[in-house]
Every structure is written in structure tokens, then in C-alpha cells.
Amino acid sequence: MKKNLIAYFSCSGVTRQAAQRLAEVTGGELFEIQPEVPYTAADLNWRDAQSRSTREMKDPQCRPSMAKQPDLQDVDVVFVGFPVWWYTAPSIVRTFLESADFSGKTVVPFCTSGGSGTGKIDHELPQSCSDQTHWRSCRLVNGMSQAELKEWVDSLAL
């Protein structure tokens, strides 16, 4: 049986809830992707051109430090969840993906969004992993029931 990890980044709690429901469906272990310096409400104000999140997303090289790293040694499948920021994943998700070797592992991104789709995620995020990573397409999981999550996971044929 394959071991699953559900790694997620969440500021408002929406992605956390989705990750928790996914963990119930997969039996996977949860890991919260946390920045070394936590975000404040002011940091997350996307309408402020000087906010931390806006500056990070405007800088394609930005990689915020993480508070801790997961143990991926025995993990086969990594579900990576995050909110959509500026039509892609937050910079800290790239930090997570670039911080470990995912060679031979399957990475399944999932996201939540207040209104946009998966945007540039499937084009941009795989570049943060090695060529030996088995990358799956990102899935928007807003409003998915437990049964729909299970159906999606089953369709992945992991």
C-alpha cells in the first residue's frame, strides 16, 4: 500500500479544510507548509502593492523560508494543496517543492480559489521538481463533497 502525504499551505483555513477532508479519503498524513516568518493580515492584503504577498508574487525568484521540512523518505504520493494567488501557487509552495527530492514520487497538486481556476499552475509548478517526478494535473477542489474527492482520488489510479 502506498503511503500518502497531504502537504498544504493555508492562510484563511479553506485549503486546510480541503486537506483534512483529503486526508480522510486517502488515509494520508497531514503536513502544514508554514513560512518561517508567519504571514500577518497586512502581509496577505493583495490589494496593497507593498504587501509581503504581493512583493513575493511579483518576484519569480522569491522563495520564502519554511518553518520545518517534512520527512518524505517513505512517502510515495504527495498531495500538495494551496490557495490560488495571482493565477498560480504561492511562492512558498515552490519553496516546498524545491526543498526536497521528489524523484520517483507522484505529486498531485490541488487548490482552492475565490474565483479563478487553476491558471498557470500546471505549466509553472512542475518546473520546481525533478524530471523524475510523476506530476499530475492540478485539481480545483472548492466545494467538492467527500464522495467527489474519493472519486477524484480513485480516478488517479495511484
Brief summary of the model shown:
By secondary structure, this protein is of the alpha/beta class.
Helix/strand layout:
Elements (H helix, E strand, L loop, with lengths): L3 E5 L5 H13 L2 E4 L19 H7 L18 E7 L7 H8 L7 E7 L8 H4 L9 E2 L3 E2 L5 H10 L3
Helix pairs in contact: 1-5
Mind explaining what this structure looks like?
By secondary structure, the chain is of the alpha/beta class. Helices cover 27% and strands 17% of the residues. The protein has helices spanning 14-26, 52-58, 91-98, 121-124, 146-155; strands at 4-8, 29-32, 77-83, 106-112, 134-135, 139-140. The protein is globular, with a radius of gyration of 15 Å. Strand 4, helix 4 and strand 5 form a beta-alpha-beta unit. The chain is built from five helices and six strands, in the order βαβαβαβαββα. Strands 1, 2, 3, 4, 5 and 6 form a six-stranded parallel sheet that branches.
Q: Sheet with the most strands?
A: 6 strands, parallel
The helix content, as a percent range, equals 25-40%
**Beta-strand residue fraction:** 15-25%
Q: What Rg do the Cα atoms give?
A: 15 Å
Overall pLDDT? 92
Tell me the structural class.
alpha/beta
Contiguous runs where pLDDT drops below 50 for at least 5 residues: none
Please tally the helical runs, counting DSSP H or I stretches of 4 or more residues. Answer: 5
N-to-C SSE series?
EHEHEHEHEEH
> How many strands?
6
Shape: globular
Q: What is the terminal separation in angstroms? A: 10 Å
